Amino acid sequence: MPAFRRSGASAPVPAVLAVLSAGALLSLTASVMLGSVTLAPSEVAAAFLGGGSDLARMVVLELRLPRALAAFAAGGLLALAGALMQVLLRNPLADPYILGVSGGAAVGALLAMIAGLGLASVSGAAFAGAMASTLLVFGLAHGTGSWTPTRLLLTGVVVAAGWGAVITFLLAVRPSPELPGMLYWLMGDLGQARGFTVPWIALVTAVLLALPLGRGLNVLARGPLQAAVLGVAVRRMEWTVYLLAALVTAVAVTTAGTIGFVGLIVPHMLRLVIGNDQRLLLPASALAGGILLTLADTLARTVIAPQQLPVGVITAMLGVPVFLYLLYRSRA
C-alpha cells in the first residue's frame, strides 16, 4: 500500500489560499460567460446589476450561476472528502467513493426515479442511500471488535461491488424511456443541480469543522501508534474523520451524481506542491476541487454545444491519465 512521503515545509498559507481564491473567482466567471451562447463580460456584469437583456439575465442568474455554484460546492466537498479519506486510510491514492457511499446514493436515487418521485425526493433518497451505505460499511468493518484501515477499505470495496450489482439489476428491469436520465445521473450530471444552498452550507461547515483537526491529522498520518504516543485520541479522531468524509461525500453525490477522480487527484496533486500539512491541505483541497469541477462542467457544456456531456465523463478523461502518472511516479 502506498504511504505518505515526508514533505518539506508547506507553502505559505496566505499565498496559496489567495491564489486558489483568485482561481475560484476566475473559474466561476468563465462558467457564467461560456456556453452554447457566449456572453461578454459587460453583459454578465449588467445582468448582475439588473440591467441588460432579459435573455442575458435569465441565462446568467437562472441557469449558469446556480449550476456553477453547485458545481463548485460539489467539487470542493469531493476534494475535501478525498483529503480526509487519504489520511484516514493512510493511503494517498484513497478516494471518497471507495467505501461504497456513491453506490448507496445511486441505488437510493434510482429507486426514487423508478417510483416517479420529484427532484427533491430523488435528492433525499440519494442522501438516505449514501448514509445507509456508510452505516453498513462501518458496522460490517467494525464487527465485534475494532476496525483497521485495511478492513474498512476491503469492506467498502465489497459493499460497493454489491451496490454495483443492484444498480445493474435496476437498469436492466427498468423500461428504456427512463434510462437516459438514470445513466446521466450515474455518470455525474449537474444539469438539474439548481439548489446550491445546501452544498455550500455543507462545504463551509465541513471546512470549519476540519480545520481544528489539522494538527491531529498531521500526527495521525504518521501512524496510529505514534499518534497515540503524542497524545492524539486515535479512535475518536478516526470516527470523526470517517463520519465527516462520508457526510460531505453524500451531499456531493446528492448534488451532482457520481463524479469520480476529483477526490483522488486534487488532494494528491496539492500534496506534491504544498506539502502534507493538513491545516493548509484541507482548505486548499476544497478550493482546488471546486475549481476543477467548475471548469470540467463548463467544458462539458461547451465542447459539443448545444448538447451537453455528463461532467463525470470530463473528470474521468482528465483523471485517468493523471492517476496513471501518479501511480507510475509512486513506484519510481
Automatic annotation (TrEMBL):
Record has Transport as a keyword: yes
Chief location category: membrane
Membrane-spanning parts: 70-89, 96-116, 122-140, 152-173, 193-212, 241-267, 308-328
A molecular function (GO) term: transmembrane transporter activity
InterPro entries: ABC_BtuC-like (IPR037294), ABC_transptr_permease_BtuC (IPR000522)
Family membership noted in the UniProt record: Belongs to the binding-protein-dependent transport system permease family. FecCD subfamily.
Entry protein name: Iron(III) dicitrate transport system permease protein FecD
Organism: Thioalkalivibrio nitratireducens (strain DSM 14787 / UNIQEM 213 / ALEN2)
Encoding gene, per UniProt annotation: fecD [C]
